């Protein structure tokens, strides 16, 4: 394989709650006023990313994994997941509140949908004044209380709401009831899954006057009714990988880039960088690759030594 850091064409998704920040803040090439998601790196069937740069431009992520699984994923990750890419990377722009929803765990998702579950995390890149995140219950709940409040249109009364700002991080294990609030732009890292159970959608209607489907019955066994600790604190030592989330599915660190530093990897697993502020460059094999806020790049496992330079903030992600 010809090694180099690989970028992909974003897969843009219009959403009833989407807006324009993916263009105005992140510079994505969109014309719609309701683009809610930019899938940056995806192996989801039907939405597989296509390479945007270098020798493999035009090839799909799946084609690369079929041809170079160990070089890209790393032997350990290949042994664990085969030729499937285990994570999904997105940027989301919530002009309006997203629906209140929940994701099933691996066992439930496998049984019902032959899919992975959906553990995820959010890094808040920008938030309008007084914007919020809905995460979990205010107090320990139970199925009966949840259903009563859902039927009475008072679900928000028992859910926890957190005011949010740029730099906040939320880690959402499967079963956590949640919603991104209006005015929030986030970077999302999750298991490769598109399974969502929608609980409540604020009674809004789509362009055709129809309400979106809810999945109340499916969600009952997926919900964690306990109080959850979702917001994460982290350090910000410059030019170092400051751990934010370390779970079985992904390890995410925050790197404040200020100048130049060397990176050394063991070749066992791929690394993904998401630029969430400013800009940075990656130098490998005497070539320099430039990235700005809103860019996502896959560094194949076989790229063991490289240099990072710039001024900005980067999320570094790998599979443990």
TrEMBL record:
Zn(2+) binds at residues 103, 120, 178. Signal peptide: none annotated. Binds 1 zinc ion per subunit. Its cofactor is Zn(2+). InterPro entries: Carb_Metab_Reg_Kinase/Isom (IPR051804), Man6P_isomerase_Firm_short (IPR014628), MPI_cupin_dom (IPR049071), PMI_typeI_cat (IPR046457), RmlC-like_jellyroll (IPR014710), RmlC_Cupin_sf (IPR011051). Residues 9-114 form the Phosphomannose isomerase type I catalytic domain. Keywords: Isomerase, Metal-binding, Zinc. Residues 243-318 form the Mannose-6-phosphate isomerase cupin domain. This is Phosphohexomutase. The lineage of its organism: Bacteria, Pseudomonadati, Bacteroidota, Flavobacteriia, Flavobacteriales.
């Amino acid at each position: 394989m010809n090694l180099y850091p690989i970028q992909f064409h974003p897969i843009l998704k219009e959403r009833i709650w989407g807006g324009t920040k993916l263009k105005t803040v992140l510079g994505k090439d969109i014309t719609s006023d309701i683009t809610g998601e930019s899938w940056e790196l995806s192996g989801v069937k039907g939405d597989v990313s296509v390479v945007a740069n270098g020798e493999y431009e035009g090839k799909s992520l799946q084609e690369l994994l079929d041809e170079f699984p160990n070089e890209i994923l790393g032997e350990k990750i290949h042994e664990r997941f085969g030729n499937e890419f285990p994570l999904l990377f997105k940027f989301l722009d919530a002009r309006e509140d997203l629906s209140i929803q929940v994701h099933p765990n691996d066992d439930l998702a496998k049984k019902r949908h032959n899919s992975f579950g959906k553990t995820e995390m959010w890094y808040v890149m920008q938030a309008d004044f007084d914007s919020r995140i809905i995460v979990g219950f205010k107090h320990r709940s139970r199925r009966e209380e949840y259903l009563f409040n859902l039927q009475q249109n008072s679900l928000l009364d028992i859910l926890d709401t957190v005011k949010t700002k740029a730099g906040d991080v939320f880690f959402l294990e499967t079963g956590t009831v949640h919603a991104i609030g209006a005015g929030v732009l986030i970077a999302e890292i999750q298991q490769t899954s598109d399974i969502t159970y929608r609980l409540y959608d604020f009674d809004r209607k789509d362009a055709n006057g129809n309400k979106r489907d809810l999945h109340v019955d499916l969600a009952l066994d997926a919900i964690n009714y306990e109080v959850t600790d979702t917001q994460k604190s982290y350090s910000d030592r410059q030019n170092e990988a400051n751990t934010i989330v370390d779970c079985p599915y992904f390890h995410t660190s925050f790197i404040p880039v200020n100048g130049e530093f060397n990176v050394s990897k063991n070749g066992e697993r791929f690394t993904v960088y998401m630029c969430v502020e400013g800009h940075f460059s990656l130098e490998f094999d005497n070539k320099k690759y430039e990235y700005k806020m809103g860019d996502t790049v896959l560094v194949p496992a076989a790229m063991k030594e490289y240099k990072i330079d710039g001024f900005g903030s980067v999320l570094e992600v790998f599979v443990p």
